[in-house]
């Protein structure tokens, strides 16, 4: 089915929320110190349709840091700037099959390609955002993300500072890429912009609108503003499929059959092209760094509505 009624959406959300509410599996991320302090029991799910209708359940207003979900939207910005064919050569589009912060993934590939959905490729992607200075690049990011969400977003300063004080590993990744000619701006500044982009504060409601903008071919269904050309969407979604959930991207695709992206703040999004964007938030993560309840909630909703892209009829 292409469209669903309000009752169908609400029922799917209620069922998933109820089924997973008691699930306590996993643990908050703690390598970014303040993320360990986010109340672990929070759980919200939101859907935004391509017609701009919103359905929320649970803690859908609670703000958290976007983290790696930001990677999709900087990729969109860079694809819009450089075109489809520049991405495989400058960043890479294959699956890494490795954890999101892998250094081995960089070292084991002859030409050092990565993927915008993992840290190495994401920092390279951020280094390619339009702008000659730190401020120009950052202003481009925050204003474009705000257009995707349909409201003015800002940074959770505490999360930014906590990660900026501890992100030696990402700085090492950026320097390694620089050594291989795969960093396109100052590696220290690019890592800092990336860290700030990961600390942008959103709730599941915002993320549903952002993913619905992808589902709607680049036009925000609430503001009707066109953020990115429709022709880029299949390519963005392909990159999401290959590495959106890191080393569990295969498992995700096996069950959900939709492009998805997670972040260590506990958010997960999925895009049902031409139908809706869905976002779930719950801080406890599995070993791959994906929200346990967030992933399962989206599995439940997508199964109930029957939106797996590989379904024949
Ligand atoms: N800012 C986080 C990091 O670079 C994002 C990682 C994630 O969400 N998987 O480690």
UniProtKB/TrEMBL annotation:
Protein's recorded name: Glutaminase
Pfam families: Glutaminase (PF04960)
Residues binding substrate: 68, 119, 163, 170, 194, 246, 264
Keyword annotations: Acetylation, Hydrolase
Family label: Belongs to the glutaminase family.
UniProt GO molecular function: glutaminase activity
HAMAP family for this protein: Glutaminase
Subunit-structure text: Homotetramer.
Superkingdom as given in the UniProt entry: Bacteria
Reaction it catalyzes: L-glutamine + H2O = L-glutamate + NH4(+)
């Amino acid at each position: 089915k292409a469209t669903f009624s309000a009752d169908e959406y609400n029922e799917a959300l209620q069922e998933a929320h109820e089924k997973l509410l008691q699930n306590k599996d996993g643990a908050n991320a703690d390598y970014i110190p303040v993320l360990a302090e986010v109340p672990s029991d929070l759980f919200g799910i939101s859907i935004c349709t391509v017609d701009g209708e919103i359905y929320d359940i649970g803690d859908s207003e609670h703000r958290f840091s976007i983290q790696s979900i930001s990677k999709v939207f900087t990729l969109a910005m860079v694809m819009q700037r450089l075109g489809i064919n520049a991405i495989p050569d400058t960043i890479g589009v294959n699956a890494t099959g490795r954890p999101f912060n892998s250094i081995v993934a960089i070292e084991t590939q002859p030409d050092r390609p990565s993927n915008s959905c993992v840290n190495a490729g994401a920092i390279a992607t951020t280094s390619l955002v339009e702008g000659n200075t730190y401020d120009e690049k950052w202003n481009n990011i925050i204003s474009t993300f705000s257009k995707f969400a349909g409201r003015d977003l800002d940074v959770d300063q505490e999360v930014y500072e906590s990660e900026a004080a501890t992100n030696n590993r990402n700085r090492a990744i950026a320097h390694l890429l620089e050594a291989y000619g795969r960093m396109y701006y100052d590696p220290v500044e690019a890592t800092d912009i990336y860290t700030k982009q990961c600390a942008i504060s959103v709730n599941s409601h915002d993320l549903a609108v952002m993913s619905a903008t992808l589902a709607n071919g680049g036009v925000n269904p609430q503001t009707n503003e066109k953020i990115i050309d429709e022709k880029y969407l299949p390519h963005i979604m392909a990159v999401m499929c290959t590495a959106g959930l890191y080393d569990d991207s295969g498992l995700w695709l096996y069950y959900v059959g939709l492009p998805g992206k997670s972040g260590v703040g506990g958010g997960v999004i999925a895009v049902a092209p031409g139908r809706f964007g869905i976002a779930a938030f719950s801080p406890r993560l599995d070993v791959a760094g994906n929200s346990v309840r967030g992933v399962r909630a989206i599995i439940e909703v997508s199964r109930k509505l029957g939106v797996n892209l590989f379904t024949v009829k």
